[in-house]
Every structure is written in C-alpha cells, then in structure tokens.
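Before surveying the methods themselves, it helps to consider a single example record, giving the amino acid sequence and backbone structure tokens:
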Amino acid sequence: MLATLRRLNPFAMSSAQLDLLAKYTACDVSDALLKLNVPGAGFIPDIGPLKAGTTRVVAPASTVHFSPKTTQSFPQPVGDKPELKDPADKNASKIAPGTPYADLVNPETIVVLSQPEGQACAVVGGINGVRMEQLGAKGVLVSGRVRDLDTLKGLKIPVWSKGTSSVGAGAQTKAYAVGYPVELGDVTVVSGDIVMLDPAENSAVVIPKDKVDAVLELVPKLVDADEKCMADVLAGGTVKEAFATHRGQ
C-alpha cells in the first residue's frame, strides 16, 4: 500500500518518561547505552544543529527513506535504493508518486530522514520544513543535506543535518518510504525509538525503545558517580583515585 495521507502518531511513550530523559545530557545517555551494549552507544556522528541553542528535545522517531533518481543535470544515479527492513511501524509504506513526504509527518515525533550517501542535493528545504512544523513535528534530523537555511533557522523546531546544498531534492532523489528502519552509521533508528537532540553537547543520540526503562534506571547512578568524581578531583584528588572510588575502575 502506498502512503498518500498524513498518519497519526502510533508511538506510545509517556510524557513522564520523555521529561525524565530530557533532564540528562546526550553524554549521560550515551554512557548508559554503552553500559547496555547498544551499538554505537546510540550516537549519530557527523551531524549537528543548524543554529545554536540550549533546549534539549526528546521525542519518538518517525522515519523517511529517500531513493536515487536521475535528471539531465545529474545523469548518473548516486547512492543505493534503500532496502526496506523490519521491524517497521504498523503504518509503514512506500510513498505514492506525487505525494510530498512532509504531508505524511507523524505529530509529536522527531522526523529522521535518510538520504543516499554522496548526493549533492538537499532533501529538506524551507517549504517542507514549515509543513513538518505545522503538522506537529518536534524536530527534524537529516542524514543528508538541507537548504533554505534562513527559513529553517527561523522554525520553532530544531533542524539537524550533515550538510547543506543550494540544489533541491528533485535533482537527484525522491522520497521513497515512511516508517521503515534507517541505518545511520552504527545506529539503526526504528520508528518509535527515542531521539535526543542536545545542542549543548552538539550530539544526537537514539535510545532503542526497548532500552528506555533500563536507561532511566541506570543514568542517575552514572551521573551521581560522575558528580562524586568531579568533586574529588576539584578537591585535589587524582582521576585514578576518583574513578576507583566511584566508578569501580
């Protein structure tokens, strides 16, 4: 079935859990994910915010895949057609031709867009950015390029990307599917996983949805240990002694 209509948010996550996670930094969360043996410790490398800020945003992920296309200006396809894998969300589908992906956005999610590697065009511009904000997206995370920077920087929601371009998406790529897992380096993002965008740490981290409870249990203990280590070092102690006392290293 091809997606043609905006989808409701199918992801259940209590606001209390999201609020608790937002109290911690991306570094705190990655420390917990490392302890839990999550691939890549959840960190998405080489991606950052378009504008500086301090507000940490935490929300479930929704996903969009793009696929290569050719035009006269770009006659050679760049990148691979995405392989759509399970687990997909219950509304996952390919995108019907002529349907703008921004009209399919899940409200209350951070939209994670996966662009084929090596393309020069942008997959998010001002019009799509405005539409995603209107439909209730909490943020936009682009594994690829964006353009219309003044407009995107003026949005109330954060936009993160790997790079920029002056070229529109139609030059090299097309929106292909929504709701399927995307692979960003060592991190696989499944719809409903929790994304943290932390501009203070310039870091984006993904928490697998089945690890949220474990992270919330572990993070306070790790933060407490780090605070005690810092206090000892500020008092003149060695890092080795502090780690041995509070981290068990």
